[in-house]
């Protein structure tokens, strides 16, 4: 066994293993990647050493006191059996409270390193805020800290039945990426904990109070310019590019940037913009991507749609998508238009962009058009990075006054009363083989899916969701509320309309 440097421990406390004849005391030391339990506080031969891994499942035992609920013990796997460790509390309330604090800190330190069981013991569902073909999303209250979280319940059966097991691989990739991004809570949807039931994976995330950017854009159509104010757009784009800079410095490609996947953590605060829906995200340095040709038509970079086995794209694909978003914010129109969904696909693949737009000296100026041209450069090598874009003079006039003006603006505009999807455009319809009118109708249907959950039904709902039967459909599933589907992108040069399939092969 490697040398254990106890000075590097994140947390130390004393626990008790209860036995039939005599209880045994252990010193517990928690490190970054494992925890150990030994009969002394500095032993190099601990009785137990447990490495943190998502395959390690921990179960917490709760105890109800007068006015609250505490964590009394936890169970961990060891050599084909399970061991339970209790807090070393005595009859004194002070010592008991001390041990309660230790266990709470221990659970917090483990965070995303392990998978927990028994989600129904710690979370009380409030309402269903979204649903999809393979999963549901709930708002829920944590009984320990009383905070509200969002819980995505993903059906194992659906992930396992996807072609070549890529659904499960994509789920693991998403979790891996969300773990990398967990230190940046101000920029990305924050994953808190992971639970597993017999049939369901549960992802516990922050509950986002604000709406999505797509909802804000829709609400702004009631304004005289039918667009968000220019200072609002500058703040939104600056925050988006700041988030992308962090993402790309961690070698992560989002691959599905669009207004639906940009949300506000706080109501009436445009500076709280965060990136959500990492269902198609990947690591830039991988030799082979899952779903290499993917995204939402209308926002996909040209190098993704023309990808072949001899080349590979980079984080610059997200920069192109951010340019498509800026174009929509400035003009009120999509950069790749069409009367039908197939028209949008063809236009996106052809990637003809006309930036010879008449200036209005408010939205369309020399500065804004120059930034657009650099974000939307068809040559990825010549396309600017997020950091370079942040230094563009387009953003020079952002100031405190404009931030204050935003608060007044959002108060006066009549926004959508949709509290159902506020979580979750992270979960919203994305991807493939659905025409725009289908997408809109499905989103409207989701908006009506707020369902209050009686307390009497809490256990059956949270301990295990029942999978619904469905007819077999050949498409990829990644996010609970959005299906990773295959769609046909017709070759414009082909008179027969031969297609290239956007899939993971």
Automatic annotation (TrEMBL):
GO molecular function (one): ATP binding
Keywords: ATP-binding, Nucleotide-binding
Protein name per its UniProtKB record: Protein kinase domain-containing protein
Gene Ontology CC entries for this record: cytoplasm; nucleus
Gene Ontology terms describing biological process: mitotic DNA damage checkpoint signaling
Pfam assignment, any one: Pkinase
Protein kinase domain ranges (all copies): 123-395
Residues given in the record as ATP binding sites: 152
Top-rank taxon: Eukaryota
């Amino acid at each position: 066994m490697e040398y254990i440097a106890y000075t590097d421990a994140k947390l130390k406390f004393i626990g008790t293993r209860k036995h039939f004849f005599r209880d045994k005391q252990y010193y517990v030391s928690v490190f970054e990647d494992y925890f150990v339990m030994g009969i002394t506080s500095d032993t190099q031969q601990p009785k137990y050493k447990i490495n943190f891994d998502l395959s390690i499942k921990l179960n917490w035992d709760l105890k109800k006191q007068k006015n609250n609920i505490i964590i009394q013990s936890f169970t961990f796997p060891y050599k084909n059996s399970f061991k339970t460790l209790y807090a070393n509390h005595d009859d004194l309330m002070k010592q008991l409270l001390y041990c309660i604090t230790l266990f709470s800190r221990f659970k917090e330190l483990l965070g995303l390193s392990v998978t927990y069981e028994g989600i129904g013991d710690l979370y009380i569902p409030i309402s269903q805020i979204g649903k999809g073909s393979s999963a549901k999303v709930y708002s829920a209250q944590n009984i320990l800290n009383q905070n509200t979280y969002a819980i995505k319940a993903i059906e194992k059966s659906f992930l396992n039945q996807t072609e070549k097991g890529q659904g499960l691989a994509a789920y693991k990739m998403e979790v891996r990426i969300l773990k990398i991004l967990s230190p940046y809570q101000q920029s990305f949807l924050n994953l808190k904990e992971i639970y597993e039931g017999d049939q369901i994976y549960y992802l516990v995330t922050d509950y986002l109070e604000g709406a999505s950017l797509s909802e804000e854009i829709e609400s702004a159509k009631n304004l005289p310019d039918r667009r968000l104010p220019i200072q609002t757009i500058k703040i939104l784009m600056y925050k988006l590019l700041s988030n992308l800079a962090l993402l790309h410095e961690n070698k992560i490609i989002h691959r599905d940037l669009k207004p639906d996947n940009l949300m506000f953590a706080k109501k009436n605060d445009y500076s709280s913009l965060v990136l959500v829906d990492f269902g198609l995200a990947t690591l830039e340095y991988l030799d082979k991507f899952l779903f290499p040709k993917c995204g939402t038509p209308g926002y996909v970079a040209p190098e993704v749609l023309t990808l072949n086995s001899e080349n590979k794209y980079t984080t610059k694909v997200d920069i192109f998508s951010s340019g498509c978003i800026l174009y929509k914010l400035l003009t009120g129109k999509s950069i790749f238009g069409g009367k039908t969904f197939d028209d949008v696909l063809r236009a996106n693949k052809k990637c003809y962009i006309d930036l010879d737009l008449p200036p209005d000296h408010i939205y369309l100026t020399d500065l804004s058009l120059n930034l657009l041209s650099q974000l939307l450069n068809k040559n990825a090598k010549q396309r600017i990075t997020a950091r370079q874009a942040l230094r563009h003079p387009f953003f020079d006039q952002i100031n405190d006054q404009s931030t204050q003006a935003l608060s007044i603006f959002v108060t006066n505009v009549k926004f959508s009363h949709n509290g159902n999807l506020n979580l979750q455009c992270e979960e919203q319809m994305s991807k493939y083989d659905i025409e725009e009118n289908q997408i809109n109708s499905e989103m409207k249907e989701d908006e009506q899916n707020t369902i209050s959950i009686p307390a009497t039904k809490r256990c059956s709902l949270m301990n295990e969701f029942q999978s619904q039967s469905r007819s077999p459909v050949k498409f990829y599933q990644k996010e609970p509320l959005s299906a990773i589907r295959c769609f046909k992108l017709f070759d414009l040069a082909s008179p027969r309309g031969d297609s290239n399939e956007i899939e993971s092969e």
